[in-house]
Amino acid sequence: MTKAALPQHGQSWEEIEALMRAKAQGDVKWREGRTGLYVFNAGPDVERVQKAAYAMFSAENGLGPAAFPSLAQMEREVVAIGLGLLNAPGGAAGAMTSGGTDSIFMAVKTARDHARTKRKLKEPMNLVIPFTAHPAFDKAAAVMDLEVRRVPVNDLLADVAAMEAAIDEATLLIAGSAPCFPYGLIDPIEALAEVAQRKGVWMHVDACVGGYLAPFVRMEGAPLPPFDFAVPGVSSISGDLHKYGYASKGASTVFFRSNDLREYMPFDAGPWPMGRMVTPTLAGTRPGGAIAAAWAVMHFLGVDGYREKQRAVVSAREKIEAGAARLGFRVLGKPQLGILAFTHDSVDPLQVHAKMMQRGWFTAANLEPRSIHLMLSPKHNEVAEQYLADLEASLRDVSPATAPSAATYAN
Question: Is this prediction's pTM over 0.70?
Fold first, then answer.
């Protein structure tokens, strides 16, 4: 990267705004529903609340609860709402973090420190997770010198027997996803938690995607498998507010079955010239805007608003599932929330994905098995038919001669 000089003279906001808008011309048109990744588009009404609340507290710092009791109170209320949605027992606790990776990191750190104290576990320790678990576990392990044991899945879901076989006396944590990011499928959390209880290890549920979606889908009558604190043996859960909670970026939550477990989460650093520095998460400064925007969106939508938004997400998924099947695609597993992935046995799905990108649809793809990946927002319910029309056109553009062998899809 080359060096750049700071402008000698400042510019007006009008000039700066014009420059910034020009820079954004090449960005994906997410407000039009053209992306199935990175952005959770709940509509302009929610966007206005996000921006106004964030701006109102953009200078405030969540590091200083004594200076900003408003932020401390909002965080407590956000955490309490999340605990209620996830069927937490009395005495449960949690905190806000900057994102799903941060939440998973803090769950692993908490489990490690708990294992050191209560189980007298010594290094090297290990994590046992399904192949589909988020790479955030690998990041946490890299920082904390933990071994990661990724276990192959069975029908795209965590293989409970194989995971149990991978556990030994040095295992501090096992995990399942609700849902996993690659396929949008909920792992058999009940069975995993039973193994965790029997083996005496920590059980974490990565509900970063589903934590603020699944409870409302369940309210609509969907037969979701148990995944939250209603399942005995679940020690901690991560859930992202800036995904299906529709908060501004930089907002997630991590929850613990009891405050006794949560007490292993904070960092107590020092001594140094200013004494001790105790922080609930890895971060020091925490943007007040992220906390405020999460609180504001939750109160703006309420249960009724979330149910409406999540109905739109499920409706979009069902429309695209049905339309993709009519075109000869095969949906992987039985997704029930907002993510789906679909493959094709006659053409290379990644070539279809590339054609869709050329038509302005910015989405993800899986390599194992090769498939198109969508993470849907309420906005997609409005554009599902256009997406399917372009999918059909893209399918026509791809020659069957380029199809991968059937072995590509073996799992």
Answer: yes
Omega cis (within 30) before 124: yes
Q: In what order do the strands lie in the sheet with 236-240?
A: 93-97, 252-256, 236-240, 202-206, 171-177, 126-130, 147-151
What CATH number is given to the structural domain containing 109? 3.40.640.10
Which tens digits make up the pLDDT trace of 152-194?
999 999 999 999 999 999 999 999 999 999 999 999 999 999 9
- Are 283 and 314 contained in the same domain? no
Residue 233, SS3?
coil
pLDDT for 400: 64
- Look up residue 268 and give its two tokens: 């107590």
List the one residue out of 265, 403, 244 whose CA is nearest residue 316: 244
Strand partners, 252: 97, 240
Q: Are residues 249 and 311 in the same domain?
A: no
- Count of domains in the chain? 2
**In a domain? residue 218:** yes
CA dist., res. 227 & res. 205, Å (int): 7
Q: Tokens 């899986």 sit at which residue?
A: 366
What own/partner pairs with CB < 8 Å and gap ≥ 24 does 383-389 have?
383/32, 383/33, 383/34, 384/316, 384/319, 384/320, 384/323, 385/319, 385/323, 387/320, 387/361, 388/319, 388/320, 388/323, 388/324, 388/327
- Kind plus residue range of the DSSP H or E element containing 148: strand 147-151
Give residue 322's domain range. 302-398
Residues 218 and 320 in one domain: no
